[in-house]
Amino acid sequence: MTSSPVLLVVAAALVDAAGRVLVQQRPEGRAMAGLWEFPGGKVEPGETPEAALVRELAEELGIAVAPGDCRPLTFASAGLDRAHLLLLLYTIDHWQGTPAAIEAAGMAWHRPAALRGLAMPPADVPLVEALVAQLGDDPAA
Ligand SMILES: Nc1nc2c([nH]c(=O)n2[C@H]2C[C@H](O)[C@@H](COP(=O)(O)OP(=O)(O)OP(=O)(O)O)O2)c(=O)[nH]1
């Protein structure tokens, strides 16, 4: 039986007042460059998932989020090249500051159903469906 290390990653669906969700584009030089993803990143040793998410959102988007405003939605469990990805997805609808693409190649706001048309990592496909189920599926709204 083979085993691979579990990579624990947290990510956020930031939801604005119109029910749109923020996605960002992975920059050149990183794994999966060019794909759209939810902002977030790896949980460091000794960090809680919520603390890691708060840190990543400050680093990547320049926004301040309270740990208590990170609401668990669902998770993905998927094989990567050298690890097994466990990705915890949270929804967040309160933050301070205006999100900016500090590290990403770009960012965009979309209704959940419109995310189906974006090139995203394979693990994100079921996450998008969970968002559509939670937030609604009208791509034009
Ligand atoms: N942030 C994020 N990562 C995702 C998503 N979907 C998905 O498969 N991943 C994968 C890509 C990477 O293998 C991993 C996240 O690692 P990362 O390299 O972006 O994390 P990080 O910001 O901590 O980066 P670094 O410090 O190692 O540079 O999770 C997603 O929607 N958001």
TrEMBL record:
Segments passing through the bilayer: none
Domain of life from the UniProt record: Bacteria
E.C. numbers: 3.6.1.55
Chemical reaction(s) catalysed: 8-oxo-dGTP + H2O = 8-oxo-dGMP + diphosphate + H(+); 8-oxo-GTP + H2O = 8-oxo-GMP + diphosphate + H(+)
Enzyme class: hydrolase
Molecular functions per Gene Ontology: 8-oxo-7,8-dihydrodeoxyguanosine triphosphate pyrophosphatase activity; 8-oxo-7,8-dihydroguanosine triphosphate pyrophosphatase activity; 8-oxo-dGDP phosphatase activity; 8-oxo-GDP phosphatase activity; metal ion binding
Pfam families referenced in this protein's UniProt entry, alphabetically: NUDIX
Cofactor(s) the record lists: Mg(2+)
GO terms under biological process: DNA repair; DNA replication
Domain (Nudix hydrolase) ranges: 5-133
Keywords linked to the UniProt accession: DNA damage, DNA repair, DNA replication, Hydrolase, Magnesium, Metal-binding, Mutator protein
Keyword DNA damage (UniProt): yes
InterPro entries: MutT-like, Nudix_hydrolase, NUDIX_hydrolase-like_dom_sf, NUDIX_hydrolase_CS, NUDIX_hydrolase_dom
Family membership: Belongs to the Nudix hydrolase family.
Protein name from the UniProt record: 8-oxo-dGTP diphosphatase
Organism of provenance: Sphingomonas changnyeongensis
